Amino acid sequence: MSPAARLAVADPRDRLIVALDLPSLRAAEDVVSKLGDTVSFYKIGYELGFAGGLGFARELIGEGKKVFIDFKLHDIGNTVARGVASVAGMGASFLTVHAYPQTMRAAMEGKGASPLRILAVTVLTSYDEADLAEAGYAAGVDETVRRRVEQARETGIDGIVCAPTDAAMVRGVLGPKRAIVTPGVRPAGSAAGDQKRIATPAAAIRAGADHLVVGRPIIASPDPAAAARAVQAEIAAALAAA
């Protein structure tokens, strides 16, 4: 199945993941309340996770929502495997790990037979060539992402997290069946913030992304539900045109 055909059968509502990058449970609960049935999938990262967000994740799952735990695990294999097993027991849908071979293998072992999908993070969307060079990487962004995706594919990983600007290349390496999740998605006219490699929702879908992570353009909007619906409409239009 080609990427276009695969995307054409996707439900646009399930393709949007709203990032609850918020400092408190009260703030997260307020956003979720305002979004109501408009959004079915949420991401919880460090900021909210360390403020009680894991308990909130369980509540969302209990209410029928999907949850993406974005903790980007990376440690010795045994620690990663045990941590992943704990997340699998929560009923989360997605969990991120860094795309290092040992870490990815341990994560795939840790999830066992659960439906949890392990996503490998390649190069953060806030990094560019200069950032990689500063960190001591001789290879640039494209080469580093490609190599990590090849290694992820070899481990049997469930999906990849990458910048939307990398999605077309990643899809070519990863193949049509595994998930591509892209943060760094900004509707036209939105501020880039600290992101450096960004794209609009439609461009990300056309490039081969399955799920789009959108935070500030929705959670900081005066009307989060309207902002979410606008992104979903753009996803739907891109899917229809694929």
From TrEMBL:
Binding-site residues, substrate: 21, 43, 70-79, 125, 186, 195, 215-216
Active site: D70, K72, D75
Annotated pathway: Pyrimidine metabolism; UMP biosynthesis via de novo pathway; UMP from orotate: step 2/2
Domain Orotidine 5'-phosphate decarboxylase: 15-231
SMART domains the record matches: OMPdecase (SM00934)
GO CC terms: cytosol
Pfam families linked to this entry: OMPdecase (PF00215)
Oxidoreductase among keywords: no
GO terms of molecular function: orotidine-5'-phosphate decarboxylase activity
Major enzyme class: lyase
Catalytic reaction list: orotidine 5'-phosphate + H(+) = UMP + CO2
GO biological-process terms attached to the record: 'de novo' pyrimidine nucleobase biosynthetic process; 'de novo' UMP biosynthetic process
Enzyme Commission identifier(s): 4.1.1.23
Lyase as UniProt keyword: yes
Keywords associated with the record: Decarboxylase, Lyase, Pyrimidine biosynthesis
Function according to Swiss-Prot or TrEMBL: Catalyzes the decarboxylation of orotidine 5'-monophosphate (OMP) to uridine 5'-monophosphate (UMP).
Family of the protein in this entry: Belongs to the OMP decarboxylase family. Type 1 subfamily.
Assembly mode: Homodimer.
Protein name: Orotidine 5'-phosphate decarboxylase
Species of origin: Ancylobacter defluvii
Gene it is expressed from: pyrF
